[in-house]
Amino acid sequence: MVLNTLKRLAWLNIMSRKAQERLAHNERRVERRDKMLTHDMTKERATVEEVFDQTTRMVVFDLLNSGVFYELNGVVSSGKEARVYWATNKEGTDLAVKIYLTSSAEFKRGMHKYIEGDPRFKDVKHDTRSLIAVWAQKEFRNLGEAYAAKVRVPKPIAVKSNVVVMEFIGKEGVSAPSLKEQSPDNPEKVYKILVTYLKRLYQKAKIVHGDLSEYNIMMWKGRPVIFDVSQSVSIVHPMADFMLRRDLANLNRFFSRLNVKVYPVEELYKMVVG
Ligand code: ATP
Ligand code: MN
Q: What is the pTM of this model?
């Protein structure tokens, strides 16, 4: 109904360009989801088989078997390091299943620095599979710590080897838009909420996001949801301070472009660190 009105407005060419882009973007997402809904699951199984190694397929099978999810519906996002799937459980609740690719060599090189120096992950094995499993555990754990500190993140559900299962942010296989894709109607308020979240993340969860930007924040029901916390580190990590300052600079850059009167970065730093 709302969508139809929007379409009519777009057709009449009286919608802002931004709103038109937003609409087009959402339509593409819905189309992709609809494709998933109508396509044959055997094809999906084929993709899982082509992309993932035997061990990963076993892990997915175990999670299916143990009832963590019931159906793997389709790919939501396909990145260099991980694929995110939309899944549903027996109750019909949407889930996001993030599967790290065990084949990414660049990834292996890249993640070392985050794992070393984090006292939570000393004594880990250093072969690729183990490292990627640690990486997935780290994302799961960071999500849990953030969630417990009342930072809005996808609620973590399960982790096994290189697979993380979490709350699906969005609806029926359509992910909520990132801040990059959809700038908020109330940027002032969203900025304030994010500052509060970063404070909680630092002071309660005792972690630093480390890759915070408009790409790793979704807008859902008018509020920001922070995600992609695999690289987040403990505040005692030698790089934590550098990473925090970079996150804060990113946040201020994005919101000052939306004409929000942002806190001077030093002041913001003190607020967050406490
Ligand atoms: P990239 O390399 O693009 O940053 P990534 O491998 O780090 O990807 P994420 O950033 O965690 O993976 O997720 C990629 C995309 O998948 C997100 O932009 C979002 O659209 C979707 N996504 C991730 N997690 C969820 C979730 N919990 N619910 C809904 N959609 C999600
Ligand atoms: Mn990401």
A: 0.88
